[in-house]
Structure formats: C-alpha cells, structure tokens
C-alpha cells in the first residue's frame, strides 16, 4: 500500500482509491481485470496463430511442422559452402531441386536444409500422445549444392574432374541417383522447359564439350571420340541410338563383358553430341519396345569413349571411357504395395540393381580384388569401371524437398552413407 510520502503521484492516487474499496469489491475488480488481461492474451495468441495459418493452409496439418522448421532455421543459421572441387576416388554430392508447382500449390513444406557440406532433413514425427516434434537428421557430403546452383556448377564440382582422368586412360562413372521427379534427367540430360529438354545444358553435353577441348591438344591427335547411349530395363539392354534394339551381353573367358551390336557413333563436334542426345532421349521417352512407358523405370547409360582407331581389337582401341548414368527412380514403397505384378517386378529389379551398384562401388572404394559385378545387368555393363586403381566415380544424389517426399529423401541419403564410409558421416542430432 502507498505511503503518505508517495501520494503525490497519480498512479498512487489511483491505488489509494482502489485501496479504499471494500475487500469484496476489491476482489471483484481484481478478477475482472484478470479476465480482461486473459482475453487480451488469448486474442493476441489467436492472431499470431491465424497469421501462421494464413501463411500455410488453414486445413493443413503441416503448418505446425513448418513453424518448427522455420524456428530451427532461425536458431541454426546456415554456413556457406567451401569452394574446393573434390577429386577423390568416390565423390558424393547432393542437389535439392526447388519446390515444384504441385508442391507449392499444396503448400508443402521444404524439409531439407543445407549448411556448408551438411544436409539436414527435418523429419516430422508424432508422439503417442499426439505431440508433434521434429527429428533432425544430418548427413555430411563432399559438396551440397544450393538451390540456385545451375547444371554448369553441378558439373564443375562432379563430372568435370573426371574428364581429366579418362585422358589418362582410365574409366570414370558419374551417376544421378534419387527418386522419380527429383531432377536426375534435368541434371544429366539438360534443363526442361515444360516437356522440352535443352540437351545442350546437361552434364552429358558439358562433359563432351570438355573432352573435345582436350582432344584438340596435339598429344591426343591419335584419339577420337565415340558415343553410345542405351537403357537397361528389366535387366535387358536397349540401344537408344538404334530404335531401342534389344542387345545381348556376353561375358568372355576373361570375364570381359561385351554388349553385342551396340552403336558406337563417331562424333566430331558438340553439335554432333547434342543431336545424338536428342535422338536417344526421344527414343527413351517413347520407348515402346522396352514396354516401359515411363522412362523413370529404366537406367540410361551415356558413354563417351576415347578410341585409338588404328588398333585392332575393341579392347586395344579404347583408351578411356566415361559412363554417365541417369539411374531409375529409387522409390520403392509404392511398388511393394502395388497389385500390378509388372510394377512389383520392375521395382524389385530396380532395387536389386541399385543394391548391386552399391556393393560394386564399395568394393571399388576399398580397391577390393573381387568386385561383385554379376549382381545385375547394370553392374555387368559397367564392370570395367569398378576395376582398376585409377578408376573414379561420382554420385549426384537428387532430392525432392517436399514434406511428402521426406521418407524417400531419407532413404536416398542412407543409401549414400553406405557407399562411401569416409566422406559421409551421419550425425545423431536431436
Ligand atoms: P527425374 O529424372 O529424377 O525423374 P526430372 O529430371 O525429370 O526428374 O525432373 C522433374 C521435374 O523437375 C522437371 O520438370 C524439371 O524441370 C524439374 N527440375 C528438376 N530439377 C530441377 C532444378 N534443379 N531446378 C529446377 N527445376 C528442376
Ligand atoms: Mg528421369
């Protein structure tokens, strides 16, 4: 209560009046004041909630997770990436595509965050008592691309260093791995505008361009570039430069694999390569012979071979080879549930070949004497690429950022952690 000394201030005078009231009246006033305060607070909270909801979707169960992810990002500011170009035997990078129209329309939350070389996936979880929380998984890679990094930049950090090595007479491979719709074909074959693909700005074309640049040096005047392009569907090989002609693969006594009758086209300019790519891509997407209306169910292999034409055997002729592979979509869930036998079989074949690929890359990383290449047609045709001390590979994992792809995203990242034990560390974070 106020003292006589402080009675001059208006605040205290009001309190004096208040103090003079009967205790019951005083209590009623107090309760009323508290109620007003409570209502004001509730109104404030409601306003904040409405603002958040308006930003997302009123009927959307994701908005709470979206808020949690935003809070997490506020608390953990992203680090910039390093600018080193890796040249390891096995190089693993990740590229997240922007949310597409459908995801944006559905107000899907982006559940993937980059910070330097670490990629975080915010997995939405719900406890038994229905409380929502995030599980934040972290994966470290050789390089993680930013949303506005284009195909050229992706190329420079992944396939470009491997062009050098094929001139040294070795084998190199570059894979695009990820779920359907995550951007494998966009990265390898070139950007899409609608359904049209610009074959000139994908990794296939960039690699060819650099090979030509180097071929102009007099020391390589005895070499020539040839290209082949084929797809593997249901463990069968189809030549994309010959109307999807089915090809047999043979293994000779030394274990060498040959794809009989594969078109090996001589190319002299980047434009030659681009027209080959156009022909092959058209063949792939229209592919009736392989019974796959959906190109995402097949692996596409584009090979750049440096050949010395004067030599007698194919073996002698091939100086170095760069295989660039747009892998089949790795999503599995929908397949195993499907009632369609063909879809289930396709899914099983894809899964088997991706597991075989993983085993071969692991063996390659350890310079193992035995590479288990017989596990699938894909690994058979790439056999030579896994053997040899100097052979190199890079894997570009493509991710769909949306909430609905979260499980596939985590599966993609887990697959990568099992390939390269040195460069990928999975951090257990909460
Ligand atoms: P996948 O081959 O993995 O099934 P696509 O390469 O066909 O996926 O990409 C699916 C769609 O997403 C395409 O329409 C493509 O234009 C778009 N897309 C993919 N990656 C990117 C990217 N990095 N930036 C912008 N759009 C992309
Ligand atoms: Mg594709």
From TrEMBL:
Keywords: ATP-binding, Cell cycle, Cell division, Coiled coil, Cytoplasm, Cytoskeleton, Microtubule, Mitosis, Motor protein, Nucleotide-binding. This is Kinesin-like protein. It comes from Oikopleura dioica. The lineage of its organism: Eukaryota, Metazoa, Chordata, Tunicata, Appendicularia. The keyword Flavoprotein does not apply. GO terms for biological process: cell division; microtubule depolymerization; microtubule-based movement. It is found in: Cytoplasm, Cytoskeleton. Belongs to the TRAFAC class myosin-kinesin ATPase superfamily. Kinesin family. KIN-13 subfamily. It comes from the Eukaryota. GO terms for cellular component: microtubule. ATP binds at residues 178-185. Residues 89-422 form the Kinesin motor domain. Its main location: cytoplasm. The keyword Nucleotide-binding applies. GO terms for molecular function: ATP binding; microtubule binding; microtubule motor activity.
């Amino acid at each position: 209560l106020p003292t006589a000394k402080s009675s001059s201030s208006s605040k205290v005078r009001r309190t004096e009046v208040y103090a003079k009231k009967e205790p019951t009246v005083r209590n009623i006033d107090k309760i009323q004041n508290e109620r007003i305060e409570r209502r004001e607070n509730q109104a404030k909270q409601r306003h904040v909630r409405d603002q958040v909801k308006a930003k997302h979707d009123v009927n959307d169960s994701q908005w709470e997770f979206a808020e949690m992810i935003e809070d997490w990002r506020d608390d953990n500011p992203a680090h910039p990436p390093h600018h080193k170009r890796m040249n390891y035997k096995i190089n693993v990078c990740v590229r997240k595509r922007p949310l597409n129209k459908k995801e944006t329309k559905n107000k899907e939350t982006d559940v993937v965050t980059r910070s330097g070389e670490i990629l975080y996936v915010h997995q939405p979880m719900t406890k038994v008592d229905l409380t929502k929380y995030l599980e934040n998984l972290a994966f470290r890679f050789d390089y993680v691309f930013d949303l506005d990094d284009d195909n050229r930049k992706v190329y420079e950090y992944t396939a470009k260093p491997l062009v050098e090595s094929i001139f040294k007479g070795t084998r190199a491979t570059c894979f695009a791995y990820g779920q359907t719709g995550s951007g494998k074909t966009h990265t390898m074959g070139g950007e899409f505008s609608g359904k049209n693909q610009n074959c000139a700005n994908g990794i296939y074309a960039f690699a060819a361009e650099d090979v030509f640049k180097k071929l102009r040096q007099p020391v390589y005047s005895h070499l020539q570039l040839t290209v082949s392009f084929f797809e593997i569907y249901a463990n069968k090989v189809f030549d994309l430069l010959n109307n999807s002609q089915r090809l047999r693969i043979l293994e000779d006594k030394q274990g060498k694999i040959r794809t009989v009758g594969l078109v090996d086209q001589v190319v002299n300019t980047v434009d030659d390569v681009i027209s080959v790519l156009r022909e092959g891509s058209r063949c792939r997407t229209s592919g009736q012979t392989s019974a796959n209306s959906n190109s995402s169910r097949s692996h596409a292999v584009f090979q750049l071979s440096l050949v010395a034409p004067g030599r007698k055997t194919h073996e002698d002729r091939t100086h170095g080879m760069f295989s660039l592979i747009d892998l089949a979509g790795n999503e599995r869930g929908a397949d195993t549930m499907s009632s369609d036998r063909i879809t289930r079989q396709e899914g099983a074949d894809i899964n088997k070949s991706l597991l075989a690929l993983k085993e071969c890359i692991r063996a390659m990383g350890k310079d193992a004497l035995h590479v288990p290449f017989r596990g699938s047609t894909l690994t058979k045709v790439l056999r030579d690429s896994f053997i040899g001390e100097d052979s190199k590979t890079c894997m570009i994992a493509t991710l769909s950022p949306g909430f609905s792809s979260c499980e596939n995203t985590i599966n993609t990242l887990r697959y990568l952690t099992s390939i390269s034990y040195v460069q990928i560390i999975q951090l257990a974070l909460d």
